[in-house]
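B., you asked whether I could sanity-check this one before it goes into the benchmark set. Here's the sequence:
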Amino acid sequence: MFLFKQGSRNAFNNLREERKFKQNYHRLFKARLPHLDTVDNVMRVLPEAVLEELKHKLVQILLTKKVWHNQRLFGKYFVIAVDATGVANFKEKHCEQCLHQTSKKGKVSYFHQVLEAKLITASGFCISLMTEWIENPETNYKKQDCERKAFVRLAERLKKAYPRLPICLTADSLYPSEGFFETCKVYDWRYILTFKEGTIPTLAQKAEAMEKDSPQRKTDLSVVGKKHIEEFYSWANGLNYKGYKINWLECWETVATPEDKELKISRFVHLTNLEAIEAENVAILSHNGRMRWKIENEGFNEQKNSGFEMSHKYSRVNYLAMKNYYQCLQIAHLFTQLMILNSRFQARLHGKTTRKHLWLLMIASLLLEKLCSKKLKQYTEQKIQIRFLT
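And here's what the prediction gave me:
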């Protein structure tokens, strides 16, 4: 359902009723195609840890095969973006774990959110490593669950699942705090965090004072297509915040194009505990910090608006089923990225041919053609080398 981007159980059931589709499914997977109502019955009782463990094993295989090793930061660290997103909204209370919010007019809305740790790369990969639901306890509570509380739980599970993985976290301006810095120190993680005015005022003051006393600056000029880009960097190393040594990085980016009447000016500020910032690595650190947006674009936006329909209520009444559908979506998104981010698939994207069109052809072949069992056997027995984008 998710791989074919059907968007609902009913839509996939319509495919299931097509005779050729059902026959081709059996030829491919050597199994009967179940009705999605039957699948839903399984999702309602399947422990959520089962699919999380399956996802973990799939990622471990890819890590073992060093699929993303050439895209590590400084040839060592895997960049992991952490962020939360909404999954479902309800007018009435969905379950005991529902989060709730009251508007100024007194209207109460109920919703579910999830915190994700996703491995991101410059080539476009955005892979779910760990999922932590932001949910209220079933018993009485004084304060609702929140993203920061969920991060503590996610970090503990992430370290247990990937104890030796060299990790560099990237996250938004919610995360700079004593608790986050302590977690990274205990787990020996690195980080590049977005910093906004007012987050830690004392740290900003120290950075400004140090930058005035001993300024360290660099300017980069580049041309990307029609864009002329100027990046002005300044930084300060070894700032002390409650015993934690933190480096400060600021970038003013000016983008000019022939069509624009006004220059586009952006300011990026990041905090990091990576190696001391120097002229040689300042651009790399800044660009990796800005890669945090990939969890929003290649991650959440892709899963909500490109056929996966993450916000669709695949199970309206059962919270456990909703969690399991979400994990299936993450696994399907992993398979999809392995499909589209390799050189064989990219070679077919010539002219105005789109990914959406190629996906449509794939479904059409299962609906209208008869797959040859002999050819399928040849494909499965044949060794094929797949190279991914870098």
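One thing to flag: The chain is about 40% helix and 25% strand. Otherwise nothing jumped out at me.
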